[in-house]
Structure formats: C-alpha cells, structure tokens
Amino acid sequence: VARAKRLTELENCTLGLIARLQPCSTYRIRSEFAHSSTTEWSASAGSIYPLIERLVRLKLIKAESRSGDARGRRDLRTTRRGDQAVHAWLLDLEPRFASATPDPIRTRAYFLDYLRSAADRRAFIARAQQLTKIMIRTVRTETKAKGMIPEADHLAALGALFQLEARLRWLDAVRKLQDTRPR
Amino acid sequence: VARAKRLTELENCTLGLIARLQPCSTYRIRSEFAHSSTTEWSASAGSIYPLIERLVRLKLIKAESRSGDARGRRDLRTTRRGDQAVHAWLLDLEPRFASATPDPIRTRAYFLDYLRSAADRRAFIARAQQLTKIMIRTVRTETKAKGMIPEADHLAALGALFQLEARLRWLDAVRKLQDTRPR
DNA sequence: TAGGTCATGTAACTAGTTACATGATTTC
DNA sequence: GAAATCATGTAACTAGTTACATGACCTA
What we know:
The structure is a homodimer of 183-residue chains.
Chain A (H helix, E strand, L loop, with lengths): L8 H13 L4 H9 L10 H13 L3 E5 L8 E5 L1 H12 L12 H6 L8 H27 L5 H31 L3
Antiparallel strand pairs in A: 1-2
Helix pairs in contact in A: 1-4, 6-7
Chain A binds a DNA duplex (28 and 28 nucleotides) through helix 2 and helix 3.
C-alpha cells in the first residue's frame, strides 16, 4: 500500500474552508480564494476541481450531487477523517513555517545599491512606502466589509495589517540609512 | 518577432546577484540562494542551469569558459543590457507587490476555531510564538556572521526582523482575544 | 433578450522541484 | 586515500497557472 502523501498547503486550506462552509460547492470555495486579500493562490478551476476529486478519493470529504439540480451542483462536506486531518494540520507547526516570508519589495531593496543615483533610490523607497500605505488602507476597509467570517477574517486581516505596518517602519529605517550615507 | 517575455522573479533576482558578484560561476549563485535565510527558492540545479542559459540567449549575461580549466568553470558577467534590465526591474514596482505576503502561521490561525479545546488553541499560539522567537534569534545571529555583503544583507535581515517581530506582537493580540472569549 | 453570475470541468502550459550522473579539487 | 566540496548538467516529476468549453439561472 502506498504511504499516504502529505497534503499540500492548498489542499489543507481547502479542506479547512470546506469544514467551515459546509455544505458548499467547489465554486463557493473557489470564490472564497478569489476574494481573499492575500494573493498566494488564485485557486484556478484547473487546480481546484481536480483537488476536490483527490480529497474525495482520500475520503477526507464527501460530495453529494443534488438530485434534479440542472446545474449539477455538488454539496461538499468533510468526513470525520477530514475533520481529523484539519486538526492535525493545525497542530503540525514545523519550525521552517516560522521563517520570514519572501517579500518582493524586500527582495528589490536588497539590490538598492544598483540604482545609479541617490534620487532613484529615494524614488524607490517613496513608491514602496506609498504602495504599502495604500494596501494598509485597503485591508482596513475590507475589515469593515460585510460577508466576513467575523472572528477568523478579523484575525487574519489584523495579521496582514501588522505585517504591512512593519514594512512601513522598515522602509523608513532604510530611507534614513540612505540619507546618512550618500555617495 | 516574438515579444520578449517578462523575466520571472527568480530570473531577475539571479541577474541581480550576477551583477553584484561578477565574475562568478553558476555554482556560486546557487550556493548564494541556498544559504539565504528566506526559503523562497532553493534554486536547485534543475532550475538554475537552464535559467542561466536563457539569460545568455537573451544577451543579458555572458558566460566565458576558462580555457584549460578541467572543472569546466564558467565566469558569468552581466552585459549592458543585463544591467539595464536589473535597473528596470527595481523601478518597476507594481501595486500588487505591496500586498501582505502569505504566512503559513497566519493561514493556520485563520482556522484556529477548528481546534476543539481552548487548551489546544493556547498551545498553538504558544508554539507559534516560540518558533518565531527562535527564528528572530537566528536572523540576529546571521546578521553578525561573516561573509556578508555589508549594506545589502544588513538591510534585508532588518526587514525580515521587523516582519518577525510584527508577527510576534500579532500572536500576542491573538492570545489576548482568545483569553477574553473562551467557550 | 442580453449580459452577468453560478457551476461544472479539461488541455496545454509554466516554473519550479527532487534525484541522479559525472568528474575535478581540496582537506583531513 | 577517503570524504567533502566545487562544478557542471539532465530526466522525471509536481503543483500550480491560463485559457477554453459547456450550460443553467438571474436580473435589468
């Protein structure tokens, strides 16, 4: 018997969403990912429909076709095994998950000294700050939007906010370092 | 003529590293990625060697074989076009790059209410805090390590540090919210 | 009745990964 | 002289993506 392979983050996250939203359709799960503020997964049809079939085969969820539904909707629900898998996933926090997450702005800042003029460097920092501020406003607005899962969405948005504010403070430190060491 | 396709982040980042470390080998670039604290890319041989060939074909770098070197070392250098590409990459900051970055711990915290007992939830938060603290110490130690590109590595490490400390504060807020709303 | 959304799914592609293979050089 | 590291590269795989296709239902 083939050893059961670990689920990917997307698979675990989908399983968690089904646990929360059940009974729900694959389409519903997909739109949940689509409207999420973090851009990790688009959860495109090409990934999510095959993924759901895998979860069914693994008996982590069950899918029930509504009899007489012309649209062919399927109601997804977690099985007991599925609930256990969600629980196990949450408690399995590996050390590497705690590492700093890659940030495209930080990546570019690493090469800041390859911008030729001090003016270019200042422009980069200013734009990064501006974009981050806009993003902070967006997340704040979303927090107040309707249709949210109260506690969970609030916590996640708060986490995103803390991260963005940290980047803003860091960019300020970067700016100060640039100002004190002109070439 | 086929429109030139955008480079990926890994390609741009590699180009930037070559600009900084030139002349250098593909192997050197690879170990630079391998020892980097962020885990975005392992820059495995299977990705990096073909990537270098693409950059050569695009005339963004040139590769010179050392005559008479039995190991077959190749010295990589950026071309003028390559330098321009690095410059353009840095200045091309799209709004979406400023969004909050996905964090496996935040993802799991989103499903915190699926842990059955308050004790499990507290254990999750405590472990997340502990792992984050360990990671902060690691980054702090690395900052003092030798062999670093002084300014650039210091800035990047500082950015990672700010992010990790923000997560720590957020986890504290999460803990307080859990404590005030037991079920 | 036209256009948007709900709802399913597939085919071709992309950008990486792991694992392997080869051989030279350095270090203990 | 054995083991680690330097240095190159390829083959098979993985986990997603985009783009397409089909059709029902809803609303202005």
